[in-house]
Specification:
The protein has nine helices and 15 strands. With 398 residues, it is of the alpha/beta class. It binds 2-acetamido-2-deoxy-beta-D-glucopyranose (3 copies).
Length: 398
C-alpha cells in the first residue's frame, strides 16, 4: 500500500512540474524549488554572552540546515540560479566572518559556520545596529551594482537580546531598498521585549522565534526564501490575495498597468513586447478581476473614472479565449464570466473585450468591442521571476 501511495505522489509531482503540461486555468504559483534558489543572504548572528555557547551552536546548525543539499551555493559561470551566504557576528561591535564570495559550496558552509559560531564572545553587549550596518555594507559592495544586482537580498538576524543604538532606522532603510529581513529571536523565559523589538525590524510576517514554531523554523525560513525569490520586474505589481495586506498570499504572476490608450490589437502587441513571455492580462475569477480594479485605485497613475481597460479576452474562431504567452495556444474561457447585462453582443467585428466601469461604486464589467477601433488603457501580465523562472535583470531588457 505504501508503495502505491509513494508512486502516486511521485507521479502527481511530475504532472505538476513537467514542462509540456497543458496550461492550467489558474493563476501561476511561485516556484518552490529550493535547488534552484537564487538569492543573496547575509546571516547576522548575536554572539554576546546572553546567546550562550549552546545557543550559538544551535544557530550554526539551524543556519546550515536551511540550505537544501541541492541548493547551488556560491557562484557558477554556467548556472545563474545560485545562492550566496555571508556571515556577520556581533556583540559590542560587528565582525565579518565570511563575505558573500567565501562559501562556494554547502561543504564550505559546514566547514566554517560551526567554527565561527562555536563560542560566544566575552562581551554582554548586543549591538544589532552594528551587525545590520555591516550586512548593509556587504550587500552594497558585493551584490548591489554587480552582476547580481537583481538578485533579491535577505538578511537573517539571530538575536538573544539587543541593546546599544536602535537598529530600527537601519532596518527600515534596508527594507525600503528592497532587502528582506528575517528575524529569529532566541527567547529567554518571561521576556517578551525582544519579540516586539524584532517584530519591528523584520519584514512583515518574517519575525520568528526558536521556540514557537512547532519545530518548523527551518521550513519557515526556507518558505521566506522562496517567497522572496518570487518577485516582479520593476514597474510590475505582484498579484496577491489581498492588495491591502502585504502578508497575504502572493502568486507567481506580475501585472503591469499601461496608462496610455491603444486599440486592443495594438495593446496585445505592446504586452507581448514588454517582457519575456508577457501577454494581455487574464481574469479567470472574481478575485483576480478585483485585484486588477483595486490596483488602479491604490497605486496607478494614468487612469481616471470612468475606468476602461483592455484585458486578454478575445474571440478566435467563434470562441472566447484568453491571450497567452507567445507560442502557447490561447485558453478557452471557462466558468466565471463578468459580462455587462446584454453582452457579449453578437458581432463579427466586436471581438475584443474591455473592462468598463458601470457606476460610481467602481465596478467594472466586460463588454466586447472592436479590436481595431476602441482605444483604452490596458493591463499586461507575465510570470514572476522565481526558482522556476530565472530573470536576467529586473529592468526591461527583454
Ligand atoms: C510577529 O509580530 C507580530 C506583530 O507585528 C506579532 O503579532 C507576532 O506574534 C510575532 N510573531 C512572533 C513569532 O513573535
Ligand atoms: C485585506 O486586507 C485589509 C488590510 O489588512 C483588511 O482590512 C481587509 O479586510 C482584507 N480583505 C479581505 C477580503 O480579506
Ligand atoms: C452598480 O452596478 C451594478 C451592476 O449593474 C448594480 O448591481 C449596482 O446596484 C450598481 N450600484 C449603484 C450604486 O448604482
Amino acid at each position: 500500500m505504501k508503495v502505491v501511495v509513494f508512486l502516486l505522489a511521485v507521479f502527481g509531482a511530475r504532472v505538476i512540474i513537467a514542462d509540456d503540461d497543458p496550461p492550467q486555468y489558474a493563476d501561476r504559483e511561485c516556484g518552490t524549488d529550493l535547488n534552484n534558489l537564487w538569492i543573496d543572504v547575509v546571516a547576522v548572528v548575536d554572539n554576546s554572552i546572553g546567546m550562550t555557547n549552546d545557543g550559538l551552536t544551535s544557530v550554526a546548525a539551524n543556519l546550515a540546515s536551511v540550505f537544501s543539499s541541492g541548493t547551488r551555493i556560491g557562484t557558477n559561470p554556467k548556472e545563474p540560479r545560485t545562492t550566496r551566504l555571508g556571515l556577520v557576528t556581533y556583540n559590542a561591535g560587528a565582525t565579518l566572518n565570511a563575505d558573500l564570495n567565501k562559501f562556494q559550496s554547502l561543504d564550505d558552509i559546514y566547514d566554517n559556520v560551526f567554527n565561527d559560531l562555536s563560542r560566544v564572545s566575552s562581551s554582554d553587549e548586543s549591538n544589532l545596529e552594528a551587525g545590520l550596518a555591516l550586512a548593509e555594507n556587504l550587500l552594497a559592495t558585493q551584490s548591489t551594482g554587480t552582476s547580481r544586482d537583481h538578485y533579491k537580498k535577505v538578511v537573517v538576524v539571530y538575536a538573544s537580546a539587543y541593546n546599544g543604538d536602535s537598529p530600527v532606522p537601519i532596518s527600515w532603510r534596508l527594507r525600503s531598498s528592497g532587502v528582506v529581513i528575517i528575524t529569529v529571536a532566541f527567547v529567554q523565559l518571561g521576556d517578551d521585549t525582544l519579540l516586539w523589538q524584532l517584530a519591528n525590524i523584520a519584514s512583515p510576517g518574517y519575525n520568528f522565534t526558536n521556540v514557537d514554531d512547532e519545530g518548523n523554523l527551518i521550513g519557515k525560513i526556507q518558505e521566506a526564501f522562496l517567497e522572496t525569490n518570487c518577485f516582479c520586474p520593476n514597474h510590475w505589481i505582484q498579484y496577491q490575495y489581498n492588495i491591502s495586506d502585504t502578508t497575504s498570499y502572493k502568486y507567481g504572476i506580475c501585472i503591469e498597468a499601461i496608462g496610455m490608450s491603444a486599440v486592443w490589437r495594438a495593446a496585445k502587441m505592446s504586452c507581448a513586447n514588454r517582457w519575456k513571455n508577457s501577454y494581455l492580462a487574464t481574469e479567470f475569477n472574481q478575485q483576480k478581476h478585483d485585484f486588477i480594479v483595486d490596483s488602479i485605485k491604490t497605486s496607478i497613475t494614468g487612469f481616471s473614472q470612468p475606468y476602461t481597460y483592455h484585458i486578454g479576452l478575445n474571440m478566435v474562431k467563434g470562441k472566447w479565449v484568453w491571450d497567452q504567452p507567445s507560442g502557447l495556444a490561447p485558453l478557452e474561457l471557462q466558468d466565471w464570466t463578468n459580462w455587462v447585462d446584454g453582452y457579449p453582443m453578437s458581432s463579427s467585428t466586436q471581438t475584443a473585450v474591455l473592462n468598463m466601469q458601470i457606476n460610481e461604486t467602481v465596478l467594472t464589467q466586460w463588454q466586447n468591442t472592436d479590436a481595431l477601433k476602441t482605444s483604452a488603457n490596458y493591463f499586461c501580465e507575465t510570470a514572476a521571476c522565481d526558482t522556476d523562472n530565472y530573470c536576467t535583470s529586473a529592468v526591461n531588457d527583454n
